[in-house]
Design a protein that fits this description.
Blueprint (H helix, E strand, L loop, with lengths): L1 H18 L1 H33 L3 H6 L2 H23 L1 H13 L1 H22 L1 H34 L2 H23 L1 H10 L6 H39 L5 H11 L5 H17 L3 H26 L8 H42 L2 H4 L9
Helix pairs in contact: 2-4, 2-8, 6-7, 10-11, 10-13, 10-14, 11-12, 12-13
């Protein structure tokens, strides 16, 4: 009965989260940001605590080390955000505007390249070419609405009314505010969650959750740092190679590094196509390919081992399977969260395997021959 009630409670809990997913999303994003930034805030808090211990008494009594740490982090993030907005965004806008202005030229170049080949194929194989053309058109008509429907639905929900538009803008303000408040109280939240664990299970739960905490926090902070490093490198290198929208493409490719293997799978073809549309020169295409090869070599052999640390202990096939399952179930969010969630579950998988190998079912004697 207790097991059935517990299962019902878990189902109702997740059902309630699903129903309240929209209003809880800003809070969940802020909680995740505060969780991953908390170790940095703890380090700064220790520094301020030692500094205030040597300060005059009136200063140590009035100033809170935790509040100072959170305030300094907030100011640093705001200054970095302003630097990006004032320094990078205008350059990105200029590159995008230049590329948009050149779109008719790119279309004409593409038609000049493709039309002669199409005419030769049509003269040689008229029926086959017409059949392929009709099939492509029908495929586009049937699949394009399905591809665009999630985007249109999301935009429709966000901007279908004035209230939804205001809420969408309000979330951009609510998330930073929630993050600051949750970051200030994160240590109390963690201790309060620990107190809810029954006493007899605390040694096991604390040890395993400690492993998950170290794994997820180090992996997430390391992956974000690697993505920023690669995004900056690709943005500068692709712009130097003359790739249209090099800054934007470089930063997007760097962010795709959060998903295993995606930065090269998406970034290299995108960079080559944009470079070819702008200038059909072989040296530029080779330069773009060299940039991606060099970036992946440095990332795999130097940046990731030093920033992220040791491997997650997951096989490449397991990582790819987790990415595919997460993407099919939860979309892009599932793709991003697939690897860290799988790594966290691997902590409990080891215990499950030890329990299974020690069970009577696994260690019991084989059954005798079936009676005739």
């Amino acid at each position: 009965m207790r097991l059935a009630l517990a299962a019902v409670a878990v189902v109702l809990f997740f059902w309630g989260l699903y129903k309240l997913s929209d209003p809880l999303t800003p809070f969940a994003v802020a909680l995740a940001l505060a969780y991953f930034v908390n170790p940095l805030a703890n380090g700064m808090e220790r520094v301020f605590t030692r500094g205030l211990a040597r300060a005059p008494g009136w200063m140590s009594r009035r100033l809170d080390p935790r509040m100072l740490a959170v305030a300094v982090l907030t100011v640093v993030v705001l200054l970095a955000f302003l630097a990006v907005v004032l320094g990078v965004v205008p350059q990105v806008y200029a590159q995008v505007a230049e590329t948009v202005a050149k779109l008719p030229e790119y279309v004409n170049r593409l038609r000049a390249r493709l039309e002669p080949a199409y005419q030769r194929l049509h003269l040689r194989y008229p029926e086959q070419v017409d059949a392929v053309q009709e099939r492509l058109q029908s495929t586009l008509r049937t699949t394009l609405p399905g591809v665009l429907s999630p985007v249109t639905r999301a935009m429709g929900r966000a901007f279908s009314s004035v209230l939804s538009f205001v809420l969408a803008l309000l979330n951009l303000v609510i998330i930073p505010v929630f993050t600051v408040y949750l970051l200030y109280d994160m240590n109390r939240i963690r201790e309060g969650a620990k107190d809810l664990v029954p006493h007899r299970y605390r040694p096991y739960v604390y040890s395993r959750l400690g492993q998950v905490d170290r794994l997820l926090s180090a992996f997430a902070r390391g992956q974000i740092t690697v993505a920023l490093i690669l995004g900056s490198f690709y943005a500068v290198a692709l712009t130097a190679c003359g790739v249209p929208m090099g800054l934007l493409v470089g930063f997007v490719v760097g962010l795709f590094n959060l998903v295993p293997f995606m930065s090269t799978i998406i970034g290299l073809p995108l960079g080559l196509v944009l470079s070819w549309l702008d200038d059909q020169s072989l040296p530029r295409l080779i330069a773009v390919a060299v940039v991606f090869a060099f970036g992946q070599f440095v990332e795999g052999n130097f940046v990731t081992p030093r920033v992220v640390g040791s491997s997650l202990g997951l096989h490449s096939i397991v990582i790819m399977l987790a990415v595919l399952v997460g993407g099919s179930l939860f979309g892009f969010v599932g793709i991003v969260l697939a690897v860290p969630v799988t790594a966290a579950l691997s902590v409990f998988w080891k215990d499950l395997r030890v329990w299974y190998e020690g069970s009577d079912f696994y260690r019991g004697r084989p059954a005798g021959p079936a009676p005739l």
